[in-house]
Amino acid sequence: KAAVRAVIYGVAALVLPMLAFEGFSAFSIFIGKTSSFGSSKALSWKGTGIAEIFNNISRAIAGVVGREAVGGTFTAAVLAGCLLLVASCFFLPKRWQRCFAATLCMVMFRSQGSYCLIMFVVPLTLFFREESQMNRKILLPFLGLMLLTVNIPAFSDRYTYDARNTITQIALAASALWCIYASVREIVIKRRGAVCVQTQQSDQADC
After folding, report:
1. Distances (CA, A) of 67 to 40, 70, 73, 87
2. Based on the number of CB atoms within 10 Å of its own CB, is 5 exposed (0-12), middle (13-18) or buried (19 or more)?
3. How far is CA 107 from its chain centroid?
4. What whole-number distance in Å separates Cα of residue 78 and Cα of residue 67?
5. For residues 119 and 101, what is the distance between their CA atoms, to the nearest angstrom?
6. How far is CA 178 from CA 17, 49, 71, 158, 174, in A?
7. Are 72 and 166 in contact (CB under 8 A)?
8. Distance CA 112, CA 33 (A)
9. CA–CA separation, 125 vs 50, rounded Å?
10. 191 burial level (CB within 10 Å; 0-12, 13-18, 19+)
11. What angle do CA 102, 111, 114 make, to 5 degrees?
């Protein structure tokens, strides 16, 4: 019930302001602006999307080898990455981890402006609430959350946008890989635990 209410509140928070100010035409404006952001071929490496991260890697390789790297939309990589992040939400054990994976999926599905990074304050807040001490297992996601939230005020748009864009993309990619790795590790641990329980039960039955 709480999840259903959260979805309803989220839809209402998105729809009602549009209807109040622009009417139904606001939806077409919203979709058009979202689709057009980062679509320029000259700026295809700028942004938070998975495709932009791949294009930035291609751009870096091109700068080293002196040839134009192959760019593109990387549709398959985007869909695969987002599907893995969504799937990881069902296996990660803690709320901040599931919230982190869901936020990464929303931010990385389509290239958006730096304003979207403010959403990482939510999983960061849950992190501080649920974790009492730092350890090696949660160090990487903590650094990712800190970089994604501190990165905006640390670098200005005019002079250091490239640095901020690169740092953001590295933090996003590393965080996404960690979420997928942590979910796979959790699945393996549960399967091993289930096998151990079955083995113990069979041993007791034999006795």
Report:
1. 20, 9, 19, 37
2. exposed
3. 6
4. 25
5. 12
6. 36, 17, 25, 31, 6
7. no
8. 10
9. 25
10. exposed
11. 85
Q: What stretches of the chain show up as alpha helix (H) in DSSP? A: 2-21, 25-36, 50-65, 75-88, 95-109, 121-130, 136-154, 157-206
Of 124 and 194, the one with more pLDDT:
124
C-alpha–C-alpha distance, residues 173 and 61, integer Å: 17
Tokens encoding 172 = 């996003």
Count of C-beta atoms within a 10 Å radius of residue 151 = 18
Q: Is 146 exposed, middle or buried (0-12, 13-18, 19+ CB in 10 A)?
A: middle
Tell me which amino acid residue 71 is: G
Question: How many C-beta atoms lie closer than 10 Å to residue 85's C-beta?
Answer: 24
Cα separation, 137 vs 192, whole angstroms? 19
Residue 141 and residue 91 in contact, taking contact as beta carbons nearer than 8 Å: no
**Burial class of residue 44 in the structure, from the number of CB atoms within 10 Å of its CB (0-12 exposed, 13-18 middle, 19+ buried):** buried
Cα–Cα distance list, 39 to 32, 51, 158, 198 (Å): 11, 11, 20, 53
Q: Residues 51-74: pLDDT tens digits?
A: 777 777 776 666 666 655 555 556
pLDDT per position as a tens digit, 116-151: 788 888 999 999 999 988 888 899 999 999 988 876
